[in-house]
Amino acid sequence: MFIIKASKYRNKIKKVLIDMAKVTILNEGVTFEVPDGSRLLEYAKKHSNMLFGCEQGKCGVCRCNIAKGFENLNQKTSEEEHTLTRLGAYPSQRLACKIIVKKGEVEIEY
Ligand code: FES
To answer: How many structural domains are present in the chain?
Structure first.
């Protein structure tokens, strides 16, 4: 009995200690939070109408512009760089399916 209660407490404490980043999809006027270090893909699919195709950084369907908070994202992988170069993307553009939100605030438009 005591072990079960302690386990419940531990889960609650973990939830409190997780820092959340704020993501705004400018063209939809939608803002949502993601745990620091989360892949944007699953949260964008849940909270926005952003389109995804391959979800592996190959097709480019999820190309988006980072209006604010570029420094709060992971580095581009070589695969993402390759796809963005092939598409003639601007330096401020990323593939949403390859984005990991590290922390802070990020503003995106697609
Ligand atoms: S969904 Fe294909 S590159 Fe992101």
So the answer is: 1
Does residue 13 form part of some domain?
Answer: no
Domain-embedded: residue 30:
yes
Number of Cβ atoms within 10 Å of the Cβ of 82: 13
Ligand 1 near 97 CB (within 6 A): yes
10 CA to centre of ligand 1 in angstroms:
37
22/9 Cα distance (integer angstroms): 26
- For 92, the domain range is 20-109
Q: Note the pTM of the prediction, 2 decimals.
A: 0.85
On whether residue 6 sits in a domain, the answer given is no
The CATH number linked to 27 is 3.10.20.30
Backbone angles phi, psi at 50, to 5 degrees: -55, 140
37-88 residue pLDDT tens? 999 999 999 999 999 999 999 999 999 999 999 999 999 999 999 999 999 9
| CB of 69 sitting under 6 A from ligand 1 | no
